[in-house]
Design goal:
The complex is a heterodimer. Chain A has helices at residues 22-31, 56-63, 77-84, 88-104, 121-131, 143-153, 291-294, 336-354, 397-407; strands at 12-18, 36-43, 46-52, 68-75, 110-114, 157-165, 168-175, 191-194, 199-208, 210-211, 218-219, 224-227, 229-231, 246-248, 252-268, 270-286, 301-311, 317-333, 360-371, 374-386, 389-392. Chain A is α+β, with helices and mostly antiparallel strands. The longest helix of chain A is centred in the last third of the chain and has 19 residues, at 336-354. The radius of gyration of chain A is 44 Å and the shape is elongated. Mean pLDDT of chain A is 84; it is low at 1-6 and 400-408. Chain B is mostly beta strands. Chain B has one helix at residues 2-9, and strands at residues 15-19, 22-26, 30-34, 38-42, 46-61, 64-78. Classes of the chains: A alpha+beta, B mainly beta.
């Protein structure tokens, strides 16, 4: 088979021919149909040329005793790849590099979050981390679980999209609208004051408009508390205005309501106290795998981690120093006073984080129920909060016109 | 048409294709002389010579020779004797 002109793959040999009349040797090659390449004249008695490795034996035979043939070099992909089997370290290096490249592609190295408005990005990232999506995690996680966790945590989020682009996770968020308008109505337009939450009316101080409910009434969200529709006794007798029975105003005022807030906390009746026994084992954890932990001789221990390396590029590597300390565990019964203090602290945190600033706590009641080892604490808070938002009155002019025509 | 076919089947006559620094000579029966300045080949009925600088035989296969280098002149010489193949 003739030597293909694309000699990248084929094994070729570069030869030096020495002897009298080297052109005659080329003539032998022509007669026998051998392919010769890159014939370079070096002197009257020396030629350099390249032949296929398959033809080398024929060339050697043809040269016989008349010419001296020496090999100057060899090449070709297959020839070089055969030589690779002796370069084990090089091959191992290539395999390790390919393995690292593949390993790195299994992890998420960056997360981008777009579309958030009222929720801040660190909070979203923390929430996603709780669900298992964080920089450095495996790509093989349940994205639906992450989305559901975000929906549960933030009511304002109406849509979440998570897409992988290589090692980048792009999180797109769309926030939904508020159930009730929070923007104030323009001053020159008539409006009612309606409740934005459920509660028992404590006091209503209308500045404009008429109160629509009595103190102590239970109102639901959306109920009109101060009405902007004011009855009118017209004194314009004999004119068009005689039949006007009501007028509209921009209602305003202060409305306070008692709103109960119910919370539930769970506690164990015993506190676990760990006392150090004085023995420690130091180890290193690689990507959260601590082999020493699996062979741990201690029944009870306390573990501390110190980050040494924590990177996701060029590949995921988390190296930690781990200190496992032997501890003895004892139980201490929690007194009612301690329990109450803990719960009160939590209530205080809840009020600061979730209720408006001007909220007053009127009453607080704690109910403890113990079942086996678990204490359920039911908390009822009676809060006094301002409720009431402006809601525009839409006047149906066509009806008013028709009423006037009927009267006439 | 007849003339074209004559060219294809004239195996004892030189056929040359020149392009820039590349020259292809077909029906090379024998190399008479080879040096970096001059190459002379025998095509059967005629001799073909090429002169230039740094002439290299790029490929020699199936009576076809590829020559590269700074080509300056080429020509043909008649033979007095019959082709020596």
């Amino acid at each position: 088979m003739p030597w293909n002109s694309s000699g990248f793959l084929k094994h070729y040999i570069q030869l030096i021919l020495e002897g009298k009349d080297p052109e005659n040797f080329l003539n032998f090659c022509i007669r026998r149909g051998l392919c010769v390449r890159e014939v370079i004249y070096e002197s009257d008695r020396k030629l350099r040329f390249t032949v296929s490795a398959r033809d080398y034996s024929k060339i050697k035979k043809m040269a016989g005793n008349r010419y001296k043939i020496s090999v100057a070099g060899q090449g070709g992909f297959w020839y070089r790849s055969k030589g690779m089997r002796y370069k084990k370290a090089f091959l191992a290096g290539i395999i390790i590099f390919a393995g690292l490249l593949y390993y790195q592609s299994l992890f998420i190295s960056e997360i981008q979050v777009d579309g958030y408005e009222s929720v801040n990005e660190p909070a979203i990232r923390n929430t996603m981390k709780e669900a298992g999506l964080y920089e450095g995690c495996r790509k093989k996680i349940d994205l639906n679980k992450v989305k559901l966790h975000l929906y549960d945590e933030y009511d304002v989020i109406s849509w979440v999209g998570i897409k992988y682009e290589g090692n980048l996770a792009r999180v797109s968020i769309a926030e939904g609208g508020q159930p009730y308008k929070t923007e104030d109505v323009e001053d020159n337009k008539p409006c009612n004051i309606v409740a934005d939450r459920d509660g028992y009316i404590d006091s209503i101080i209308p500045r404009e408009g008429m109160r629509a409910v009595e103190d102590g009434t239970f109102v639901k969200a959306g109920t009109v508390i101060i009405s902007g529709t004011v009855p009118l006794e017209s004194t314009a007798y004999g004119t068009e205005g005689e039949n006007v029975k009501e007028s509209y105003v921009h209602a305003s005022g202060t409305v306070k309501a008692r709103i109960p807030v119910r919370l539930t906390y769970y506690r164990t009746s015993y506190d676990t106290i760990k006392t150090s026994a004085g023995r420690k084992i130091w180890s290193i954890s690689v990507n959260d795998h601590d082999f020493i932990q699996q062979l741990l001789p201690y029944k009870t221990s306390s573990v501390k981690h110190v980050d040494i390396i924590n990177t996701v590029r060029p590949f995921r590597l988390k190296l930690q120093l781990v200190c496992t300390e032997k501890v003895t565990v004892s139980k201490k019964k929690i007194s009612e006073k301690e329990l109450k203090n803990q719960v009160l602290n939590q209530i205080h945190e809840y009020v600061e984080e979730n209720l408006p600033e001007d909220t007053e706590i009127l009453n607080k009641s704690l109910n403890f129920v113990q079942e086996k080892n678990i204490i359920t604490i039911g908390v009822t808070l009676e809060t006094l909060q301002q409720i009431g938002i402006e809601e525009e009155i839409i006047i149906d002019k066509s009806n008013r016109k028709s009423e006037k025509d009927d009267d006439q | 048409m007849k003339t074209e076919l004559m060219f294809d089947f004239a195996v004892n006559m030189p056929r040359i294709v020149i392009s820039g620094e590349l020259m292809i000579i077909d029906y090379v029966k024998r190399i008479v002389m080879y040096s970096p300045d001059r190459i002379v080949v025998h095509n059967g009925r005629r001799y073909t010579w090429v002169e230039g600088k740094n002439l290299v035989i790029k490929e020699l296969k199936d009576e076809r020779m590829l020559i590269t280098g700074a080509l300056e002149q080429f020509g043909f010489l008649e033979t007095l004797y019959t082709a020596d193949t």
